[in-house]
Predict the structure.
Amino acid sequence: MVQLLKINNPGLVLFSVFLSVSIHLLAAFFPADFRFLSSYTEPLSHLVFPSIVNMGSMGFYLLLFIGCIVQILQAFLVDSILNNYKIIGKRSYIGGMVFVLASSLDKSWLFFSPMQISLLLILLLINDIFTLSKQERFYKEFFNIGFSVSLSVLFYFPSLFLLLFIFPALFSVRPFHIKDVLRVLVGIATPIFMVVSIYFLTDQSEILSTAMANQFKIPLLSLSFFTKQHAISLILIATWLVLSGLFVVAIPFSMTMQTRKMIGVLIIETVLCTLFFFFPTHFSIAYLLLISPLIAIFLAILLSEMKNDLIANVIFGLLIVSTFSVIIFN
């Protein structure tokens, strides 16, 4: 099966769409709690999510529907990054399919959420970083990188780790220049200025300052947050995270310089994301959606380059079983 999916046929993109739609339709028949989305006090999330959650069952289906669309866009981005920057040896569209499965390893990951918005912005950020590795003139991309990071924080405060991520990731693909840093800082400042201006012009400055102050009053993550369902999800996600890394290390294949850079960038993002898992927030396992690109891209590289069809099919089959089992049984 994997051999067929590795063929350079753009029509296979439709298989990613089919997978995403199937997973979200199945999730509609096995509902999960989505009310946690109303608790986020970040400036932009507060404007969007409480009103949708308050719609009740209609809000549930709307969040699943938008979540499906966003996941498909993310899958297209993964395919684009892997192919346009030659992260994989031969052009194929298996990356998007693997991403859809890897980003569905928990039911809470399927909803349109602040974390899903952050993940979309992270993928756009990685795309811009690798664009800079290919071109000499680089003005718009530096601004876009800063803008994406700032916008992500305004939707989901724990994605603040991206401020630490962008500079080592950025300068791992091109030389350091102070002008580049300044362009990124302008991009970071722009969404903040826009949001503060909107709240000021609508006489809601006090609401904004209170919301930001309350963010730091939220308790740190503790063991009391973990239910049986959380424990199962954590074990499954951690298993695929470890396995994807071990597969890449244990099964030999030639890696290009671009592939090594991509792996390095994703490892930096995952380490920082894991450290910020303990950042004050309204705890949800949905936060771990932000590490799904590492699992997805590791497995996509592996399945694209692997010569042993039997092992490739087993890995892909186990990922499908894991994803659909979560939807039905967890």
